[in-house]
Amino acid sequence: MVPKREFYFSLILVLTLVLMVPARLFAYGDPSGGYLFQILTPLAAMLWGAWLIFAGAIRRRLEKIFRRTRLATPGEAEGDSPENS
C-alpha cells in the first residue's frame, strides 16, 4: 500500500506535469451571428419548456374561447342576452 504522503506527492506531480504540457488551441469567433444563437437557443428552450408544462391549460382555455365565439350570436357577444338579465 502506498503511504498518503507519497500518493499526494505523486498526484501533485502528475497534475503539475499535465498542466505544463503545451497545448495548441485555436479559437474562432463566428462573425455570422454566433452571439445571437447563444441568446436565442436558451430562449427557445424556455418557451418550449413552458409550452410543455402549460399546454393542457392553454389548450383548454383556447377551446373555451373558440366555443364561446362559435356559439354566440352577434347580440350575445356583448353580454346583453336574455339569459343574463
**Helical stretch count?**
2
Work out the number of β strands.
0
- Percent of sequence in beta strands: under 5%
Quick one: biggest sheet?
Answer: none
Flag low-confidence runs: none
Q: What percentage of residues falls in helices of 4 or more residues? A: 55-70%
Indicate the radius of gyration in whole angstroms. 32 Å
Q: What is the element string, with H for helices and E for strands?
A: HH
Coarse morphology: elongated
Mean pLDDT: 78
Given helix and strand content, the structural type is mainly alpha
Tell me the span between the first and last alpha carbons.
92 Å
Q: How would you describe what is shown here?
A:
By secondary structure, the protein is mainly alpha-helical. It has a domain at about 45-75. It is built from 2 helices and no strands. The N and C termini lie far apart (about 90 Å).
Blueprint (SSEs and pairs):
Layout: H1 4-20, H2 34-71
